[in-house]
Specification:
Elements: H1 4-12, E1 20-24, E2 37-38, E3 48-49, E4 53-56, E5 66-74, E6 89-92, E7 104-107, E8 117-120, E9 130-131, E10 142-144, H2 152-160, E11 165-169, E12 173-178, E13 183-184, E14 195-196, H3 199-210, E15 213-216, H4 224-237, E16 245-249, H5 259-264, E17 269-273, E18 276-277, E19 281-289, E20 292-299, H6 303-321, E21 331-336, E22 340-341, E23 347-355, E24 360-363, H7 372-376, E25 380-384, E26 390-391, E27 396-401
Parallel strand pairs: 5-6, 12-15, 12-16, 13-14, 16-20, 18-23, 21-24
Antiparallel strand pairs: 1-11, 2-10, 3-9, 4-6, 4-7, 5-8, 17-19, 19-20, 21-27, 22-26, 23-24, 23-25, 25-27
Helix pairs in contact: 1-6, 3-6
Bound molecules: ligand LQZAQKY5 and molybdate ion.
């Protein structure tokens, strides 16, 4: 059987880095900056008030209490505020530009709140309650470097320096195609012998969660001609914005109707038994479609096998392709809460729940690769090495955190 690392390397070789493109801020979250982002102006762009109150010259408050005429009103957003004459105050709101000549702001709570004349009870130092221009960012500063993952704070910063769009790496575009004559679309009734198609929606969601662009095609029965036509039609229809990867589910083991294997064998996709459980039957390579070659990864049909294989082989490669700084799931070690056994010669990926405080991981459900409900209640996978057949309670295992 092929070692997990060897198949992982074969999948990694399929996808190169995606190109840069321009994205709106609304479409930038979870993506990676393709170029350094430079501030065209400082932040704050101008000295402004940190408090609602009165802009003053601090020297005018040498002896308090003191009464000063209120010569102007400066709400936030006023662009034509006059200079502050000595011996006067301007009523000012948080975020409003500090008038020329003022060097401090007295918060309204330290005054009588007057609008014609204000009585100030307490003195302020020069600079008090003033946010200086460029305190946060200077003009010309590189505020975010190429390769930065864009989360809410980074998008906020980009907006603050006035960037309406950003140069980011393109999301890998992934087509998902499930196979199986037993499949029925969710929402439609089942007859005996049929099941609802769950791998497609699951894998498309997994692609999106990883940062890619998942597109779910209508599943096909175990029919090579229909499979190939569906795939080629879908690729042809996307010729303007080509697909980076095709993910198939099912049809790759040893049965009489292995549609994916039959369609691709000897035509650029290599099928292997990989030394893991779940996820033994795997395939990877290129399909020559109507628009040229497209990378293909064929995942096994058992639902847990499908998603675990995605986690092990596809997710890190998709993320690396668009420059994600952390392609892999965070990995920690934890003590196993209960003993379990594992087949010899296959690296086992069990579903678990981690207790980060206690440093333990408990198995969720048994090893069966049809146990989708257990997977849905797990927050991690943990790994039992290929040569290990039994792990005792308290022994340390590697854990992949799924919500990280
Ligand atoms: N004689 C052998 N039989 C099997 C072997 C083997 O080595 N020799 N391997 C087993 C292992 S391990 C796995 S994993 C599966 C993989 O099979 P396929 O990838 O060919 O998948 P299918 O046979 O099409 O389906 C397997 C299983 O999963 C269900 N399924 C398939 N697609 C979906 C879907 N889109 N949504 C929900 N469920 C799906 C399907 O109904 C089957 O129950 O093969 C073993 N057999
Ligand atoms: O490889 Mo299969 O995934 O064990 O059920």
């Amino acid at each position: 059987m092929r070692p997990v690392a060897e198949h992982a390397a074969a999948v990694a070789a399929l996808l190169g880095p995606t190109a840069a493109e321009t994205a709106t801020l609304a479409d930038a979250r979870g993506r990676v900056l393709a170029e350094d982002l430079v501030a065209p102006h400082p932040l704050p762009p101008f000295a402004n008030s940190a408090m609602d109150g009165y802009a003053v010259r601090s020297a005018d408050l040498a002896a308090t209490p003191v009464a000063l005429p209120v010569a102007a009103d400066v709400p936030a957003g006023r662009t034509d505020g006059p200079p502050l004459a000595p011996g006067t105050a301007h009523r000012i709101m948080t975020g409003a530009a500090l008038p020329e000549g003022a060097d401090a702001v007295v918060q309204v709570e330290w005054t009588d709140g007057g609008t014609e004349q204000v009585r100030v009870e307490q003195a302020v130092d020069a600079g008090q309650n003033v946010r200086g221009a460029g305190e946060d960012v200077t003009a010309g500063q590189v505020v975010l470097t190429a390769g930065t993952l864009l989360g809410p704070a980074q998008i906020g910063l980009a907006a603050a320096i006035g960037a309406g769009t950003l140069r980011v790496r393109r999301r890998p575009r992934v087509l998902v195609l499930s196979t199986g004559s037993e499949l029925v679309a969710p929402g439609e009734p089942l007859r005996h012998g049929q099941i609802h198609e769950s791998n497609g929606p699951m894998l498309a969601a997994a692609v999106d969660e990883a940062g890619g662009r998942g597109e779910l095609l209508r599943f096909v029965p175990d029919d090579v001609e229909q499979f190939t036509r569906t795939l080629d039609d879908a690729l042809a229809a996307r010729a303007d914005d080509p697909v980076d990867l095709v993910l198939t589910s099912g049809g790759v083991s040893a049965g009489a109707y292995e549609v994916v294997k039959d369609a691709f064998t000897g035509r650029g996709v290599t099928f292997s038994k990989v030394a893991m459980q779940p996820g033994m039957p795997q395939g990877a390579g290129h399909h020559r479609g109507p628009t040229g070659e497209v990378a293909v990864v064929t995942l096994p049909g058992n639902p847990v096998s499908s998603l675990v294989s995605f986690e092990v082989f596809v997710r890190p490669v998709l993320r690396a392709a668009f420059g994600h700084p952390q392609p892999e799931r965070p990995r920690v070690r934890a003590r196993l809460a209960e003993a379990l056994s594992s087949p010899a010669g296959r690296q086992q990926f069990r579903r678990g729940r981690i207790d980060a405080v206690a440093g333990t991981v408990a198995p969720v459900g048994a090893a069966g690769s049809h146990l989708l409900a257990a997977l849905a209640h797990a927050d991690c996978l943990f790994v039992v090495d290929a040569q290990v057949t039994r792990v005792e309670a308290g022994e340390s295992v590697e854990v992949w955190l799924l919500d990280g």
